[in-house]
């Protein structure tokens, strides 16, 4: 196991927080989709150093490369409501407007582009550091 994975695993083991994460992924292996382009959110629950897949939730993509004037607002609202019970979002990319709206629901947005597994561990580290500051 490489050094980065060892560090991620040790930090994850130290945390006992339980939280729910929505992940944007085309194939379930990589965090490789833009929030506005996703049609499926993978939902995970993280407890300490462990995570488990809970379900896939479907929505309609709302971002059409800036051409989202009419249905874009309502579809974005639908996408946000689909994951409103989650504590965090792990996505390759997300616009500022969507980040602000998700923030109103208390959902932390993390842009990440690598494997889902490492992304979940990275998110654990970020949340751990955030709670240490508070």
Percentage of residues in helical conformation: 25-40%
The CATH topology assignment is: Nucleotidyltransferase, domain 5
Work out the strand percent: 15-25%
Write down the Rg: 15 Å
The dominant shape is globular
The CATH architecture: 2-Layer Sandwich
Low-confidence spans: none
Any idea how many domains?
1
Main CATH class: Alpha Beta
Q: Using DSSP, what is the number of strands?
A: 5
Strand adjacency order, main sheet: 3-2-1-4-5
**N- to C-terminal separation?**
32 Å
Helix count, per DSSP?
A: 4
Main β-sheet description: 5 strands, mixed
Structural class: alpha/beta
Annotated CATH homologous superfamily: Dinitrogenase iron-molybdenum cofactor biosynthesis domain
Q: SSE string, helix = H, strand = E?
A: HEEEHEHEH
Mean pLDDT, nearest integer?
83
Task: Describe the overall structure.
The chain has 134 residues and is an alpha/beta fold. The chain has a single domain, classed as Nucleotidyltransferase, domain 5. It contains 4 helices and 5 strands, in the order αβββαβαβα. It has helices at 3-14, 72-82, 96-104, 116-133; strands spanning 18-24, 40-47, 50-58, 88-91, 108-111. It has a 5-stranded mixed sheet, sandwiched between helices. Helix 1 (3-14) packs across helix 4. The mean pLDDT is 83.
Blueprint of the fold:
Layout lengths: L2 H12 L3 E7 L15 E8 L2 E9 L13 H11 L5 E4 L4 H9 L3 E4 L4 H18 L1
Parallel strand pairs: 1-4, 4-5
Antiparallel strand pairs: 1-2, 2-3
Protein name: Dinitrogenase iron-molybdenum cofactor biosynthesis domain-containing protein
InterPro entries: Di-Nase_FeMo-co_biosynth (IPR003731), DiNase_FeMo-co_biosyn_sf (IPR036105), NifB_C (IPR034165), NifX/NifY_domain (IPR051840)
């Amino acid at each position: 196991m490489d050094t980065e994975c060892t560090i991620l695993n040790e930090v994850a083991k130290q945390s006992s927080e339980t939280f729910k994460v929505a992940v944007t992924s085309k194939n379930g292996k990589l965090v490789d989709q833009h929030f506005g382009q996703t049609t499926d959110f993978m939902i995970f629950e993280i407890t300490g150093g462990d995570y488990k897949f809970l379900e896939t939730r479907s929505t309609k993509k709302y971002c059409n490369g800036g051409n989202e004037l009419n249905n874009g607002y309502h579809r974005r609202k639908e996408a946000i409501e689909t994951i409103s019970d989650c504590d965090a979002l792990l996505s390759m990319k997300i616009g500022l407007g969507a980040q602000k709206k998700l923030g109103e629901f208390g959902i932390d947005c993390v842009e990440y582009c690598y494997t889902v597994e490492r992304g979940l561990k990275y998110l654990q580290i970020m949340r751990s550091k955030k709670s240490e500051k508070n």
